[in-house]
Amino acid sequence: MSFILSIIRNKLNKYWLVPSFLLLVEYGILTYSITKHQSLEETNTFITKNAIPSVVYCSNVIPQAIRYHLKINQLSKEILEEALQNPKTVERIKELFREDIQNRHSEINGIATLVKDGEHSYYINFYTIPTRNYKLAELLIRERGNKKNLVRIIKENEYYFKSVLADFGGTDETIYNMGMKIIERGEEVSNVVLSHFVDFFIEASDYRADKDIESSIKFYYKTQIQGKYIADFHAHIDGSPPSELDLHSSKFMREIVLSNKKEGFDLYDLIKGESTKIVYRDGRIVAD
Ligand SMILES: [Zn+2]
Questions:
Q1: Neighbours of ion ligand 1 (CB under 5 A)
Q2: Residue 169 — very low, low, confident or very high, per pLDDT cuts 50/70/90?
Q3: Which domains does the chain show, CATH number per domain?
Q4: 110 CA → ligand 1 middle, Å
């Protein structure tokens, strides 16, 4: 009997050790670097709820992160430029900017992959993934008429909600706390304060792209990804260069920032806090 049990245990060990290890790494290291604003309790829920999708996610993201940190198999600037000259890449980037203009509640965000196009040519494909701020903004809009639900949602996301307001216009802790007190006491002005908070969040949300771990897990689980992972990306529809936060994020994962320009775009390739700019105008790459 114990012999049979040990065989079963061995088989289970073989199967479970790998995912357990991956989950441990995700829990301990990756979630911390990828989602700075997200609390570990929230992330923990995703793991228990979505164990198998989490494993799929980890088995994609962990090798990407390791390769990046060890500088193995990273796309060179030459191949990136070559792939940028491919009309398929340019068309996809234009499409992303169009999507970004329509999406009023977040910058477009996702991953970029290098896809073979015939024998010696490549193009870049961009996959979009919903952001954390987009999801929360959508939820707030949906519940706009329901004060009780709005207050519950804001309180459930208190830390994140506050940090978005603070980044955007200096609505600091004191203003937030005073506002919430007024809202909860149900004073006459409470509806005005509440709708001001919600409007402010939605406005701020359009200028940011906070990676959402739950959406990323779903994305890797459900998507047949074509090509080889290059980097994470997001778009600046207003044509601005990468922010300090973008440069900081690139210490953990390579980040491409697509900046919309009148006759083309700028592509910023952020690697370990350093930025390289490629300027694309009127159908070709030009000197900066
Ligand atoms: Zn940015």
A1: 243, 246
A2: confident
A3: 2-69 (no CATH), 77-131+224-286 (3.40.140), 133-205 (no CATH)
A4: 12
